[in-house]
Amino acid sequence: MRKLQVQGVHHITLTGADRQSTIDFWEGVLGMPFVFEQPNLDDPEEGHLYFDPGDGRLITVFTHEQRRPVHRRTPTDPGCVHHLAFAVSRATFNQVAERLEERGVGHSGPRDRGFMDSIYFKDPLGLLIELACYKFEPPAGATHAEVLMEAHRLRLAADDDHIGEVHLADAIEALSRRRSPSLSEEREPKNPWHHAR
After folding, report:
1. CA–CA separation, 152 vs 146, rounded Å?
2. Matching PANTHER family, A to Z (predicted)?
3. For the chain, which residues score pLDDT lower than 50?
C-alpha cells in the first residue's frame, strides 16, 4: 500500500449565490482578483467563478442567478467546513476591524493564537472567514510549517499548553543554525558585554 502524496492545495470550491454577490465579496471585500469564469462543467445552469487568493492558487465558486445569500451560519457538523483562513499582512490585520465595521459587519475582534493573530467574521452566505497574521517570518529557505513543527517540539519539551512566542523564537534560531553553516568552532549563545566590565 502506498500514499497518494499531495503537494499543496490546488483549489477550494464553494457553492455561492448569484454571480454579482460572489464577485462583490471575494474581490470587493477580500481583494481577490476575479481571474476567469466558465460554466460549471457538471451543471451548465451554474456559473463557475475563479479568484486568486494572493498566492496564485484558486478559490472557485459555483453560482446560480436564482440563489440568494442566506445569512445563517453554515453547518459545522462532522465533515463540514468549519471556516476558511486567509493570510494577511500585519498592516492589513490592524485595519480589519475598522474596514468590516465600515460595512456593518460583525466580527470577533483580534484573537491571540500564540503563533498568529486572527479575526473572524461571516461572509454573506454564513461561512466563517478567518483573516490570520503570523507573528513570525521563517528563516530563508524554511516554511511556516517547519517553524511550527520545531516550535511544537520545543513546546512539548517545556510542557507548555500551546505554542508561544518564545517557542517560535527558539525554533527560528534552531532552524537557522541547522540551515546556515558557520566557521565558528562552537555556536553557543554569548554575552560580549561582560568583556567590557
Report:
1. 10
2. RING-CLEAVING DIOXYGENASE MHQA-RELATED, RING-CLEAVING DIOXYGENASE MHQE-RELATED
3. none
Show the DSSP H helices in 30-116 as ranges: 90-93, 96-102
Residue located via cell numbers 546556515: 180
Cα–Cα distance between 81 and 77 in angstroms, integer?
A: 8
Place of cell 445569500: 69
Contact status, residue 14 vs residue 74, Cβ threshold 8 Å: no
Q: Global pTM?
A: 0.91
Give me the chain's average pLDDT, please.
Answer: 95
Instruction: Kindly report, residue by residue over 3-42, the tens digit of the pLDDT.
Output: 999 999 999 999 999 999 999 999 999 999 999 999 999 9
Give exposure, 34-56, as e/b (b: 16+ Cβ within 10 Å): eeebeebeeeeebbbbbbbbeee
Q: Are 17 and 26 in contact (CB under 8 A)?
A: no
* CB count in 10 Å sphere of residue 142: 17
Q: Which of 14, 12, 25, 13 is nearest to 74 (CA)?
A: 14
Residue-range domains of the chain with CATH: 10-69 (3.10.180.10), 73-135 (3.10.180.10), 144-179 (no CATH)
Looking at residue 114, its pLDDT comes to 96
